[in-house]
Amino acid sequence: MTTILVTGGTGTLGRHVTERLRADGHEVRVLSRHAQPYAVDLREGGSGLDEAVAGTDTIVHCATSQRGGDEKAARNLIAAARRAGVGHFVYISIVGVDRVPFGYYKSKLAVERMVEESGLGWTVLRTTQFHDLLLMVLRGMAKLPVLLLPARVKDQPIEVTEVAERLAELAQGAPAGRVDDMGGPEVRTFDSLARAYLKATGRRRAVARIPLRGAAYQAFRDGGHLTPERAVGTGTFDEFLAARFGNAPRR
User: Fold this and answer.
1) CB 142 within 8 A of CB 198
2) Where is the NAD(P)-binding domain (predicted)?
3) E strand residue ranges, the chain
4) Which residues in the chain show pLDDT less than 70?
């Protein structure tokens, strides 16, 4: 049995990783800003972080924020891992961080490079967007009477539990460097995904496709965030919606 620290262990991905590792018999420490006994803000570091890391064999770094701070958090975590002599650092990243000039993606790529240059044994897995994130985005868009979608953009969402299973598998193995990407089973237009959401939730909304400007939008439109050659996921977005909503009344 090994001791594994999961950062962001109460989040969308981290909680599933934690459950899988514990089911496999490992001692798992959950680190987040509010989870006791390892309630730590990675951006601040400090003695609490050293206490959480001390004695761990592997770190699975799932904690992230689109509001910024990922690079500072990773820097603190890597420094603590070095001090503790951690043998394996596993990082979850996103397909296309090296192809799409989007602010959050740039930060994820910078963290990848920190991990690679850390001197620790490391593994990096990139995946496409989770079904849960797509749902959150569409739910926010549907608050308006018209669903405004970026024109000519596709997506390849993946089931988070499948990513968690793969990440747990990697955490239990030897450092593997950059491993093969994971993509969802279908590449679909954002329009078709939005209409699937509206149907599943019983919402009536007009849909408008809006052309946008900028290098990031162009990269998304060109499919820089997709990996059709690595469509290894099995759970589809329609199956995710059916499990979440069943037959919803129209509103």
Assistant:
1) yes
2) 8-132
3) 3-7, 27-31, 58-61, 88-94, 122-127, 146-150, 154-155, 177-178, 188-189, 206-210
4) 247-251
Nearest to 229, CA basis, from 179, 159, 182? 182
Distance of CA 66 to the CA centre of its chain: 11
Sole residue written with tokens 């603190």: 76
Length in residues, the chain:
251
pLDDT in tens, 29-85: 999 988 899 999 999 877 899 999 999 999 999 999 888 899 999 999 999 999 999
Has residue 84 been placed in a domain? yes
Q: What value, to the nearest 5°, has the Cα angle with vertex 57 and ends 55 and 62?
A: 105
Distance of CA 213 to the CA centre of its chain: 26
Helix (H, G, I), strand (E, B) or coil at 91: strand
The torsion angles phi and psi of 152, rounded to 5 degrees, stand at 60, 35
Q: Which SS3 state, helix, strand or coil, does residue 246 take?
A: coil
123 Cβ contact list (under 8 Å, min separation 6): 88, 89, 90, 91, 170, 171, 173, 175, 176, 177, 179
CB atoms within 10 A of CB 251: 7
Q: Is 8 left (phi over 0), alpha (psi -120 to 50) or beta?
A: left
Q: How many folded domains does the chain comprise?
A: 1
Domain that holds residue 11: 3-245
Name residue, tokens 């001791």: 3
CATH code of the domain covering residue 81 = 3.40.50.720
Inside any domain, residue 251: no
Within a domain: 128 = yes
Q: Is residue 250 part of a domain?
A: no
